[in-house]
């Protein structure tokens, strides 16, 4: 030890400077090794312990040790600034690399020396603080001297290094962020500075823990460092270190402005998860509540800011910290925590409107409510709640009452003091029980819901403590009254949730057993949520032995509910779970289960279907599989025993009661017990199934049950390998022969049992195709033989069944062949007819030869008898009859072929509606290509059919009058070629429905093929054929309408001529003989429409326009294509404008949708600003067509708005509102439609004899104007824009008579339409403006009129004055002012009456008050009188 002392003290005499460093000091401190000098040999380094050294070191040497450390080691380092890293960027000197390396070495040696100083101080303080075991008296005395006689230089050193703790920490962070040095050196220096700051803190912590003199001067930086370190690292050891020196916080001054940053560090601890969740962290946070009362306020504000987004664990931690701080608090600290913190949280919880914050505050306070076993909690809660809680239960705001009720029930019961007498306790409890009952009558639904939930929680928690009379009274109110509250479904649902909670307390079962049957009718509640909550309650009760669920709700009610809720999967499963033991007992024999099944569906067929479809969820899979196999075996045996299905009854009534049905009367059970036992014995002896009367419908019901069970088993068989053996054994039962035999047996009925056949197909489709080869061939044959008489359900089932068996290629081939067959047949017949044309020429030659022979042999055969002539006639007649019969047969067969093709197209539609089959069709590349090509071949035929029906040739439409002879000859050749391709009469024989369906399905296929692509390729070219066809279609439409208009003009002329004289008519007919011949030619190919039959062109046109509209909806085309589509729509509207043929009015809804989609396309990044303009133009063009459409005009005159119900103008206006341009479209609608219509119906130049009136009834306006006003008057946004427009319109027109008159008419119509439904404040504002400004115009107008009249009275005679007065185009401002006053009165009166109604409803809510019919009549009369004042 002397050697160590000598070497240490020698090193302390050497000064640390930039010129050189004492390596021996670094070796002694950092490595803890001293040097032994040996002559002639290398020095030996020996390891030692500072703890042992300082325990040995005499007290007298302390002063020398720390004086040397301070003066020779620490002071030079600080004075020469050797502890701060050198920054080349901040110094202006140019330093070479060697100088930089020298600086790096200096800083490293300086830091090592400083680390040695800290090592000595740390070891010294630790050694004198550490107790020595087995101390002798001398050692104890020496340690006491060490602790008492510490040199003052040590404290000075600690004060010096205390000032640089945070400086070193900042340097460490700065080096990491700015990277002043190389990467390795930066990392090394950052670690060294971080370690040094930690070592300084450890030295100061020991001094603070020992509470030595002036320890408070070491507290600020030390605790600041620990707070920063623990917040950054989150290590538990750092928080423990902080806890050990927390008493130092009591020595600080927190009112100093410089302490703000330190207080922020303390407050940050309440946000850090490591402090909140760990026990050591909570201890520190709890201690902070006892430092200063002013600090509690800032802590509370910090915690309040975290409560909104805190999770449940964090809320509990905060509540625990508050509670434990409250437990240890005294005096002013206790008052501060109670009234500033806890009561403040209570007030916020009661008055907050944020639902999430309220929920978190309730969870926070719930922790305090659960601490009631601690005796001081109850008085504290009562003390804090009493001023705010009880009065908040009766305030006017429903949200405040709701929040207060939650806290009241959660804290129930509140005790004033632990020293109260029993009488005082009972009085307070009775007051609180009264509040419980009063909350049941609260008008707010939310308050009543909280009251129900809280009351059940209170009863469940304190059932044994609450008097039985109070419990029964509360339950009776809940179950008998609130359970049938019609005002809200949530209240009724909450009743069942509460009963479920109360049942957890077994002491309540006896009371609930009596009350719960009163709820049985709620199983039929109109709310699905209520019924589901009731079912959950019954399932819970099913597991309780003291209450039986069927005593609450009879089984018959459950079965009826199963029928009504068959489509609701959740409810049907729950009902099945309730009765599964009743109809499917686990210990029953297999034939008993079959008997149960038969009796079940005989009584409740739909309920049985629901039950067995969910059975697999509650019964082992093996048991369900055995049952379904047994049931199928029964059906197979039944069908073999009853070969003739026609001899069986279609249906049978239930002739036997269900033997497992329980009787509610125990006496009947006892009487029938012996009979039931004898039946069981007989069944066990016979071991055969019971014979029950089964009808054909019952047979089909069992097939449906088998299908439902197999469908529920299929997912299990496909996912789990453990059920593969079960599936293979089931296939032995469901074999090909048995399934096919049942299918044929059902088909053999006089009227085939379609439902049963469909169910057999569904059963077979649950398995693989390989198992049913016979059935496969039979179904494919039936599929080919399907015709129009086949029900749709069999078509769809057969089609989807074959597809589920992975036969898409064969099925598609059959479908495509059927579709192509009519056209193949068409061309065959056409070729046959062309060949027949050649045959008559041969016959004529033969006849000529015979005639010549007859002439030559006439003399020889003059004796021919008349009998031979008659034979020849008979032969000719027979030939004609045979030809007619052949033609009829050909027509019938062709009609059947067309019918078959139409059915096949329907098959394709079915396939594309089903997701699975649609994907299979689209993945069949070969067949899909054939399908597309076959439908493409339809387009020329559709075009030809359109030309025939419309009597139009496309070549005739585009030609000019002055065409060359060569072009006309070419046209004639093309016509002849077309006629040769297909005969017109044959084309007319094709079913129109087939052509329309083929065009429609072709477009659907194109849309689905576009949908296969992962990304939408705009203008992909899929629809090019359709667009080319559309151009031809528009040409045909244009030619057809022109021709119809010419025909109508001719008819009018003919009618006029007939009225004048009959002779003119005959002359015209002679002159127009050529045209008559043309008419005869047309009549040969004329297609006659049936009554109310649409034109073929309108059906095709509708489909084409739908294609354009939907293609924009799906975003398949660019803006340029949209522009082209707009031009086509616009042209079509021009063509059909005013056309009265059936079908053209149905184009209007398609155009309306297209206009909206154009606007939507412009909003969604269409890229072309013109689309919005096109949309608006098309909209107004559509309105013009609506006005000219005869059918819509007729409906509007008959007060029928159904014709425009398709047009959703409100959605169109919503698109403009999204774009922020609603004012633009409203302005256009008013100016271009409404005011334009006003100009036709309103007289702006009335005579003095005429009475000026406003338009009350808008039915005299055009249909489009009526529709626009009706739409915009139902939207508050539109009414606001109407108000803005009318204000600007009147101002721009300088408030002339026309602008005011038009505005008043529009306001009058809107007010009379829905004055009680919408807020008309913008319109009343305009009326107020008129009322305030029009009087000045009235006085000026009347003065001018009077002056003009007086000036001219002397000069003009009486006749001239009358003429001038009658022709002066003036509307009096006085009349306009009168209209404004009347309309304003009408608006205000209606508003006041509506408010009175609402007030009356609010007061009478829950009491069932209604307004009498006499009062209603009086109000109607008052309204009529008020409205008549306008005229």
Characterization of the model:
Helix 2 crosses helix 5 (97-129) and helix 63 packs parallel to helix 66. The chain has 67 helices and 2 strands. The relative contact order is 0.02. The model is unreliable at 131-135, 654-691, 859-863, 958-981, 1063-1092, 1346-1356, 1360-1369 and 1398-1431 (pLDDT under 50). It is extended. With 1431 residues, it is mostly helical. It starts with a helix and ends with a helix. A two-stranded antiparallel ribbon has the order 1-2.
Secondary-structure topology with pairs:
Layout (H helix, E strand, L loop, with lengths): L1 H12 L9 H9 L1 E4 L7 E4 L2 H7 L5 H18 L17 H33 L7 H12 L3 H11 L2 H14 L4 H27 L9 H15 L2 H9 L15 H9 L4 H5 L1 H10 L4 H15 L4 H17 L3 H20 L3 H15 L7 H9 L3 H4 L5 H14 L10 H19 L4 H18 L5 H13 L8 H14 L6 H7 L12 H15 L6 H4 L2 H10 L4 H15 L6 H14 L1 H9 L7 H21 L24 H6 L1 H14 L9 H24 L4 H10 L2 H12 L6 H12 L7 H12 L7 H13 L3 H49 L9 H48 L1 H9 L1 H12 L1 H13 L3 H5 L6 H17 L2 H6 L2 H20 L12 H37 L1 H10 L1 H12 L11 H18 L5 H18 L10 H17 L6 H19 L1 H8 L11 H11 L2 H20 L21 H10 L3 H17 L4 H18 L6 H33 L4 H10 L5 H31 L9 H16 L3
Antiparallel strand pairs: 1-2
Largest sheet: 2 strands, antiparallel
Strand numbers in spatial order across the main sheet: 1-2
Structural class by SSE content: mainly alpha
Through-space gap between termini: 123 Å
How many beta strands in the DSSP annotation?
A: 2
pLDDT under 50 segments (min length 5)? 131-135, 654-691, 859-863, 958-981, 1063-1092, 1346-1356, 1360-1369, 1398-1431
Number of helices: 67
Calculate the mean pLDDT score and round it: 76
Proportion of β residues?
A: under 5%
Q: Rounded to an integer, what's the Rg over CA atoms?
A: 51 Å
Shape: extended
Report helical residue fraction.
over 70%
